[in-house]
Amino acid sequence: MTTDLMKRKRGGGRAGHAKRRGPAVINQAPWCVPVNPDRPTEPMPMEGGGGDP
Amino acid sequence: MEAIHDTAMRVLEEIGVAFLNPEAVAILKHAGCRVDGEIVYMGRDFVMEMLSHAPEQWTITPRNPDRKITVGGNHILFGNVSSPPNYWDMEIDRKIPGTRQYYANFLRLSQYYNCIHFIGGYSVEPVDLHPSTRHLDALFDKLTLTDKAPHAYSLGPERIEDGMEMVRIAAGISHEEFDATPRMFTNINSTSPLKHDWPMLDGWMRMARRGQGLLVSPFTLAGAMAPVTMVGAVAQSLAEGLSAIALAQYINPGVPCAFGTFTSNVDMKTGAPAFGTPEYMRATQITGQMCRYYKLPMRSSGACAANVPDGQAMWETSNSLWAGVQSGSHIIYHAAGWLEGGLIASPEKFVMDCEVLSQILRYFEPVLWRTDPGDLAYEAMDEVRHNGHFFGIQHTQDRYETAFWQPSLSDWKNFEGWQAQGGVWTAERAHLLYKRILEDYEEPPMDPDIRAELTEFVERRRAEGGAPTDF
């Protein structure tokens, strides 16, 4: 059994793994540094006095 | 804002901050600060002058330069859960101490998900590794199983010096190249109220001298380690964090720093910390305003108090994450995998959080508010008019594949369809998905010579005893 396994041809490492695994487990956008396009929420007025009307 | 700033400055000037590190105290005394034992009193002019040296935006270039991240501006970055001592998954269904195997699996998940941009502290503490050499094995795993911007703990001289050297070796660069631009980062937490401890300050100063990324995140829980009022807690948090940044800027003017908020509240019936609360969200937003006032990049977190990946876990974490978005945070720590106030890491929660992160990333895409004629779709409405539908028309056919965010975990079937497929609840689906991801994961390539050098370094430092422990 061990001999058979040792004789077996290697699966091709990374390339073989990619070939065997089929479609990705999850769909995801490529890695990138995202941009937050929104203006921040700013509850505090510059001079204080926020909160109660 | 001026009132919060003035309160923070009065704290620094009149109450002072304890620096439990004689070297730090000596440096600040030399800088002209008033010192009484371990208490350092900083004048606002000194603090503001030091803050003026801090860059508004900076980068971290990890061993894979394609994974370079920008901290500041309008960028936003998400990182893995960091530092829970315990692990939970659905199969084990118990809270158990973290191990190297579980830690490595979180690294694989962090590498796999493109919505994770940097690798923070240990996703779960590998307590089966001896504390004196744990940092060597844990950082080896981090640098080989991932290629994203790495963190190292500021826990005394040996750990941070080993961390910097391992990051340098993994990048295959010289000491000069390492010092020239940030390749990694650390995060320290003040020991609130108003105290910085010895090992964190030591690591902070060593990283400052080497020009690496510095995050300070005071752990100001309102009602416990900070005032029960949220603006009071934010003011104390600012005093603690800005004092550390002033120290770093005095040591190395221009060294990249970011201010981290960890201001939340506690359950006043039990003292237990709470996260993702309305108070937490407002504290995060207010801190964002103050960071822009000081022109500092900001860190916040994706946190919850829930013990298992249930509904509470997701509404609290989602509140935290969206508060990070609303506040203009640049770095969001603990964005995936956190439970029990940071005491448990869970792979199911990691996968569930990444589902939310992928939605946030989609929410940022300008295509959603583009107003080209094709987007406004008058012709499509003209074609369908009052009695048809849009499924089959060319306008839909041309766009349907990319028109909407696509879930990896969410189940959009109706009740009967969901029930017919076994009625599987979210956490169980997440359990199955995280296992499939681990099977699909591929280790990022590393030059064999670099890996051998890294291995040799770990073995040598292990033989030398690693870092001293006090037990």
Automatic annotation (TrEMBL), chain B:
One of its GO terms (biological process) is methylation. Pfam families: MTTB. Keywords: Methyltransferase, Transferase. InterPro entries: MttB-like_sf (IPR038601), MTTB_MeTrfase (IPR010426). The keyword Protein biosynthesis does not apply. It comes from the Bacteria. Its EC number is 2.1.1.-. GO terms for molecular function: methyltransferase activity. Belongs to the trimethylamine methyltransferase family. This is Methyltransferase. It comes from Primorskyibacter flagellatus.
